[in-house]
From TrEMBL:
InterPro entries: Cellulose_Degrad_GH3, Fn3-like, GH, Glyco_hydro_3_C, Glyco_hydro_3_C_sf, Glyco_hydro_3_N, Glyco_hydro_3_N_sf, Ig-like_fold. The keyword Hydrolase applies. It is an enzyme of class 3 (hydrolase). This is beta-glucosidase. Belongs to the glycosyl hydrolase 3 family. Keywords: Glycosidase, Hydrolase, Signal. One of its GO terms (molecular function) is beta-glucosidase activity.
Length: 752
């Protein structure tokens, strides 16, 4: 095989910003940067052959153009680039988890992307640029040296939309610096089953919290002032977090009422924030694969919500309609079902020729119309023009390292700080007393930066073996933060930890779970491992104070490890996680994180979420009975809600409810107070949860300070699907009394 362009030689061709060349003597409108986008799209579309249009609807993995064109990586191979980008005119390329350059640096990433882009532009008949995709879900997490933010489940516990937006913008700047213009983030699914392997990729169990933070991430990603524009992707539409048995991608069955009232709102909030693209749920809902659901992709997304952007499948999901779901007799029929449902681009990463042949055959059979193809290609080209790819397809690779490595570590530390949730602080064991002379740090996760970051970090399943992620572990963070005169001992084994703890003033034991992703991260019994439970139990038996720090992507049943004086949920805090844990332990930061997901008492209660509906059920834990409830979290100060007042005692069903909430810091140090407002109804024709989050904010309060915050509740947050079991009607706000509660205070508003 002959190598086309090495990473070194490719860098020389991108020193200056390039423009897409026009056809000689034609001066087409699509190459005119001053022409309106719709004019440019129409002009380009009419010049394209059917084969070129079909190619635009395909996304191919970069590994199909490198080395042996399988998974070898390395330099590009001309014959394979020609097959993908010219013969099959693929419109998009992606790097899935771990599919990067052979030497993983930001500069090499930029050079790799530039090389693909240059080949596509120079060699395609109409010089159409590709759009390059990557899953940058917690920072530019595929790139070694990039700052790794907390996973979304931790960001959810910040309850801080502005912080999430800032993290999204930081990520987009790093993504753009490496030449990439399409980010497959944020995840707007909600997590309600701790067994599910992608639990940590969500912002939590509540639709409003998840939707608000996902919409903030969209604004951050698409509003960043970077080297180029980046498109955000709302995923995985819809209902991906509801697998029937808790395992990833297992079909789920949900009522239309539950789908409309609970599962769809978080996606809608993020889409309404202006997201350019949506990725489809890999699973099936109510017996229909989401990738072939006209109801989801057209009736809801296009017709009801008015979405104009690009809908892309997840990994190989069009082919799965034939090979896994068996709803299509052959591949052309599978392609037709997906495209007619509303899919614009197929992530078919391995077989550009197969996609081209499949869709062309579907057209020849009369299964898909050219008009339908033109719709999708119009959306794809519109996104490319909006991103400026026809004018600025390349980046300066020489600047990538300086723009990515170590960027925004202070912001990542703030995010990790705010995501920490203090759940137990018996006897005020925290913050660590100034008189503390010896601290023992134990547990297999105390000095493990790779598992601290979680899956989707450098590699798909987490940091690959033999690669060390830059960052600070919990042990390192504690050693750096410990005051002069305090000795920090890192235990070398469980026996050493127990022996050292006997004369220590405090033991910090760091427990958790191994990094993994998707199905490999499924956990049928989401609990702390037996050896870790035994270690914590032995440390408790020493009679000395113990603080447990949990590094995990989901709440874990603690078993024998429960009951230590301190309990800190650190989630998967990223490269600055060690500093963040130490910030809270030593009191540099007053913890403000509040649980974005309910913490179960024992295994067997999945799914678990605070909006469990009432019933005639009885027996231990058959209702909502969590060890730590949704929204739980402690601080080093105390807060109170002093009053809740509505602007009107009676409103119409189409009115927004305005609430003024008086809050106070009743303690002796400043802190950030999360102020959630829940709604309940004394009676309702349709079952209503005892509490439903309808508004929230986060406010900084000095010691002894009081203030009033104003929160609004639009009618959509009160709307439910009326009627009988079939749930066939549109959402409505029912008449009656609604009780709005914050803390111990409440007010009633009647909807007339």
């Amino acid at each position: 095989m002959r190598s086309l362009l090495t990473l070194a030689t490719a860098a020389a061709c991108v020193a200056a910003v390039a423009s897409v060349p026009a056809q000689a003597g034609d001066n087409p409108s699509y190459t005119n940067p001053k022409a309106p986008v719709d004019v440019r799209v129409k002009d380009l579309l009419k010049r394209m052959t059917l084969e070129e249009k079909i190619g635009q609807m395909d996304q191919i993995s970069v590994v199909r153009m490198q080395g042996d064109c399988e998974w070898s990586g390395g330099a590009y191979t001309e014959s394979c680039m020609k097959s993908v980008l010219v013969d099959n005119a693929a419109g998009s390329v992606l790097s899935g988890g771990g599919a990067g350059p052979s030497v993983n640096t930001p500069q090499n990433w930029a050079t790799m992307v530039n090389t693909v882009q240059k080949y596509a532009i120079d060699n395609s008949r109409l010089h159409i640029p590709i759009i390059y995709g990557v899953d940058a879900v917690h920072g530019h997490n595929n790139v070694l040296g990039a700052t790794i933010f907390p996973q979304e489940i931790g960001m959810g516990s910040t309850w801080d939309p502005q912080l999430v937006q800032d993290a999204g913008a930081s990520t987009a700047k790093s993504v753009a610096a490496t030449g990439i213009d399409w980010n497959f983030a944020p995840v707007a699914d909600i997590a309600r089953d701790q067994r599910w392997g992608r639990y940590y990729e969500t912002y939590g169990e509540d639709p409003l919290l998840s939707g608000t933070l996902a919409s903030a991430a969209v604004r951050g990603i698409q509003g960043a002032d970077g080297a180029k524009d980046v498109a955000a992707t709302v995923k995985h539409f819809a209902g991906y977090g509801e697998p029937g048995n808790g395992h990833d991608r297992v079909p789920g069955d949900v009522s239309i009422r539950y789908l409309q009232d609970t599962l769809l709102p978080s996606y809608k909030q993020a889409i309404d924030a202006g997201a350019m693209s949506v990725m489809v749920n890999s699973g099936a809902v109510n017996g229909i694969p989401a990738t072939s659901s006209h109801y989801l992709l057209t009736d809801v997304l296009r017709d009801r919500w008015g979405f104009k952007g690009v809908v892309v499948s997840d990994w190989q999901d069009v082919r799965a309609l034939q090979t896994s779901y068996h709803i299509a007799a052959d591949y052309p029929e599978a392609v037709a079902k997906a495209v007619n449902a509303g899919l614009d681009m197929a992530m078919e990463p391995y077989d550009a020729q197969g996609w081209s042949d499949g869709l062309k055959t579907a057209v020849q059979r009369g299964l898909v119309s050219v008009k339908r193809i033109d719709q999708s290609v119009t959306r794809i080209l519109t996104m490319k023009f909006r991103l400026g790819l026809f004018e600025h397809p390349y980046v300066d690779a020489a600047k990538a390292d300086s723009r990515v490595i170590g960027a925004d570590t202070a912001l990542a530390r703030q995010a990790a700080d705010e995501s920490q949730v203090l759940l137990r602080n018996d006897g005020n064991v925290l913050p660590v007393a100034a008189s503390t002379k010896k601290i023992v740090v134990a547990g297999s996760y105390a000095d493990d930066i790779n598992d601290q970051a979680g899956g989707w970090t450098v590699g798909w399943q987490g940091v690959p073996a033999g690669v060390q992620l830059p960052g600070t572990t919990v042990l390192q963070g504690i050693k750096e933060a410990a005051p002069s005169g305090t000795t920090v001992v890192g235990a070398t084994s469980a026996d050493d930890a127990v022996a050292q703890a006997k004369d220590a003033d405090l033991t910090v034991v760091v427990v958790g779970e191994k990094a993994a992703a998707e199905g490999s991260a499924d956990s049928p019994r989401p609990e702390l491992s037996a050896d870790q439970q035994a270690l914590v139990k032995s440390l408790k038996a020493t009679g000395k104070p113990v603080v447990t720090v949990v590094i995990a992507g989901r709440p874990l049943v603690l078993g024998d490890a429960d009951g230590t004086q301190g309990l800190l949920m650190a989630w998967l805090p990223g490269s600055e996680g060690g500093h963040a844990v130490a910030d809270v332990l030593f009191g540099k930061v007053n913890p403000s994180g509040r649980l974005s997901a309910s913490w179960p008492k024992d295994v067997g209660n999945e799914p678990l979420y605070y909006q469990q509906l009432p019933g005639t059920n009885s027996g231990p834990e058959s209702g909502y009975d969590a060890a730590y409830r949704f929204g739980a979290g402690l601080s080093y100060t105390t807060y109170s809600v002093d009053s809740v007042k509505a602007s009107a005692a009676s409103v119409r069903s189409r009115d927004t409810v305005s609430l003024k909430v008086g809050v106070s810091n009743t303690g002796d140090r400043a802190g950030d107070m999360v102020v959630p407002v829940y709604v309940s109804q004394a009676s309702s024709d349709v079952l209503a949860p005892p509490a439903k989050l309808v508004a929230f904010t986060k406010v900084h309060l000095g010691a002894g300070q009081s203030t009033t915050v104003t929160l609004t509740v639009p009618p959509s947050r009160l709307a439910v699907t009326p009627g009988d079991i079939d749930g066939s009607g549109p959402q409505q706000v029912a008449r009656g009394a609604y009780v709005f509660t914050a803390g111990a205070q409440s007010t009633t508003v009647t909807v007339r």
